[in-house]
């Protein structure tokens, strides 16, 4: 055989092998399934620290003359401390300053404060954020940042005079709170 015939035979064998590979690739989708993947990346929610979820906040004793003349008792501060928060920067906000919205829910006295139960009369409970903005029962407070070192949201509570005739005695109330953040 001459070298020309050998080249032609080698070319035909190579072309046949390549053509069968191409044909196999065209039919590959018929032998194998397709797989589409999708998913989500979630940011874990904050956890309310132990001791912050259910607090008993003792309020300073207020006399009837003080309640009548000053209209309110002293401020008692309390905080809701959070843990396991992932602080992620969003839309130009500082990563360590997410915005939190708190809603306090409980019995209302009808004047924007929380009603008290017990023997005492003539007083209600006022809750405010650290800027002094009052919480109205069931209505969200304006958003506030959080101290990234203590991870605590600061609030204040005080007894305030209402329209009832003051009467000495013990009082109590139970409030719930809801936190939203972004």
UniProtKB/TrEMBL annotation:
<protein>
    <submittedName>
        <fullName>Type 1 fimbrial protein</fullName>
    </submittedName>
</protein>
<keyword id="KW-0281">Fimbrium</keyword>
<feature type="signal peptide">
    <location>
        <begin position="1"/>
        <end position="19"/>
    </location>
</feature>
<dbReference type="GO" id="GO:0009289">
    <property type="term" value="C:pilus"/>
</dbReference>
<dbReference type="InterPro" id="IPR050263">
    <property type="entry name" value="Bact_Fimbrial_Adh_Pro"/>
</dbReference>
<dbReference type="GO" id="GO:0043709">
    <property type="term" value="P:cell adhesion involved in single-species biofilm formation"/>
</dbReference>
<comment type="similarity">
    <text>Belongs to the fimbrial protein family.</text>
</comment>
<dbReference type="InterPro" id="IPR008966">
    <property type="entry name" value="Adhesion_dom_sf"/>
</dbReference>
<keyword id="KW-0732">Signal</keyword>
<dbReference type="InterPro" id="IPR036937">
    <property type="entry name" value="Adhesion_dom_fimbrial_sf"/>
</dbReference>
């Amino acid at each position: 055989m001459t070298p020309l015939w050998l080249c032609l035979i080698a070319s035909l064998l190579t072309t046949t092998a390549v053509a069968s590979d191409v044909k196999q690739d065209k039919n590959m989708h018929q032998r194998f399934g397709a797989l589409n993947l999708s998913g989500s990346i979630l940011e874990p929610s904050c956890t309310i620290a132990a001791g912050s979820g259910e607090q008993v906040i003792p309020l300073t004793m207020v006399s009837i003359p003080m309640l009548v003349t000053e209209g309110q008792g002293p401020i008692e501060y309390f905080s809701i401390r959070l843990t396991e928060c992932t602080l992620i920067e969003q839309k130009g906000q500082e990563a360590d300053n997410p915005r939190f919205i708190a809603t306090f829910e409980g019995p209302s006295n009808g004047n924007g404060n929380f009603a008290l139960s017990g023997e005492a009369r003539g007083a209600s409970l006022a809750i405010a954020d650290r800027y002094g903005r009052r919480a109205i029962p069931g209505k969200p407070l304006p958003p506030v940042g959080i101290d990234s070192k203590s991870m605590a949201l600061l609030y204040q509570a005080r007894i305030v005079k209402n329209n009832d005739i003051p009467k000495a005695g013990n009082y109590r109330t139970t409030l719930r709170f809801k936190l939203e953040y972004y």
